[in-house]
Amino acid sequence: MPTALLSVSDKSGLVPFARALVAAGWDLVSTGGTARALRDAELPVRDIAEVTQFPEMLDGRVKTLHPAVHGGLLARRDLPEHMAAIAEHQIAPIDLVCVNLYPFRETAARPGVQAEDVIENIDIGGPSMLRSAAKNFAAVWVVVDPADYDRVLAAIAEQTDDGTLRRMLAEKVYAHTAAYDSAIATWFAQQRGDRFPETLPVALTRKQTLRYGENPGQEAAFYLERAGDGLDGLVQRGGKALSFNNLLDLEGALLTSDPFADQPCCAIIKHTTPCGVAVGATALDAYRKALACDPVSAYGSVMSFTVPVDEAAAEAISSLFVECIVAPSFSDEAVEILGRKKNLRVLEGVARWPAGVLDFKRVRGGFLVQDRPPTSLGEGEWKVVTRRAPTAQERADLLFAWRAVSAVKSNAIVLARDGATIGIGAGQMSRVDASFLAVHKARSLGHDPAGSALGSDAFFPFRDSIDQVAAAGVTAVVQPGGSVRDPEVIAAADEKGIAMVFTAQRLFRH
Fold first, then answer.
1. Does the pLDDT value for residue 375 go beyond 70?
2. Is 66 among the catalytic positions?
3. Do 144 and 133 form a contact (C-beta atoms < 8 A)?
4. pTM for this prediction
5. Is 122 helix (H, G, I), strand (E, B) or coil?
6. In angstroms, how far is CA 307 from the centroid of its own chain?
7. I need a surface site. Which of 72, 131, 190, 413 has the fewest CB within 10 A?
8. Active-site hit among 135, 207, 341, 440
9. pLDDT recorded at residue 212
10. pLDDT confidence of 61, banded at 50, 70, 90?
11. According to CATH, what is the number of the domain 383-502?
12. Is position 207 annotated as part of the catalytic site?
């Protein structure tokens, strides 16, 4: 009679799985709460202590760490000397292990949880059994995920597995235990306040495979740090499946609108950088102002709103070809209107960054790791450095421009007026070119830069940009400062009557 050892924290699907094993002639061995659940279901089960001839002890910390368990798991059935060894010590083979682990991550994430409670949820016996069974996958079934119960039962019943499924389940075990250990290591580092420990374990779970990457011919997939966080917290209410570029642009859209979470905002994104950002009285007002910045580039864009999208906004948006739209919510009428465009992906919810997470950038051979970029951009350390201080209206436009430029690819220049971008110079190799492009874009689309405010993501290395935008009529500038030529740049602003503010904060986005 084959033997199955069942010991699970997540008991979903446990009883039907165990009942099917019993019906197929399997002997069940179990531990603690799992054994109680099986007995409550009137299933025959032996306690692990009957196998080990040793009682559970230390409040359950020691129960499966025993040669009678690991010998039964690790003995190779194809080696007579292994089988003779376990027979000599009266150890019976164990043919299936079904284990999932103490809820460490869930416990650690509870508000106000005590460190002692977190440590008690570090599973020791479970990973040990899983790893032993997975190493001997040629002879032992190992199941860590309730989603695999049915196919394991089918393979056992049909005797169809040639080892391929057992090998895949073993692979799944090692990925699972690696992720589990990663979460534990990360928690210990956080307890020490170490943002960048000597070893940084990262465990990701595949959410979905994608049709292709940035371009056809590049294979791709979407992986999650934790289910339900970030983009996985959004609910798709319409449109076809998200693509690699859709997901990238959604992140760019949310990054752009995040600093404006306290007011109605619309961010229109193309290739991860904004082509229009605006705040307004309503979603419709913000959309119209954002679109006006660059309606040509907005074709095929991704949009983010900080407020619910209603019928009026949806009607206006539906006249434009849009790839994706994300908002905290949509009215039923808005969903129906947007749903008429079968290719438009409609995503609802708030995609929050989990607390304490890091930002990764891939380079050859490794990763660059940093804190997340700031989204709370206020006037805390602003300093007026010119003879003329900005007016109240200019200061409001400067704050908007400063928030907007934070999401633009460097070198970045934004021209803004009345809560909307009117010209954006993005991704240029020199700041004077970015300034020229912002003015050019504004004028080419019918916006007069005269009287506008300018935001720059980094300092001006020379006065040439100031001379250029002054000729276009810009009257106020916000920038980090910090150049050796700051005095020259300030002098240029004073010559032109421009009010300039230093923020002492750089906003590069590479």
1. yes
2. no
3. no
4. 0.85
5. coil
6. 21
7. 190
8. 135
9. 95
10. low
11. 3.40.140.20
12. no
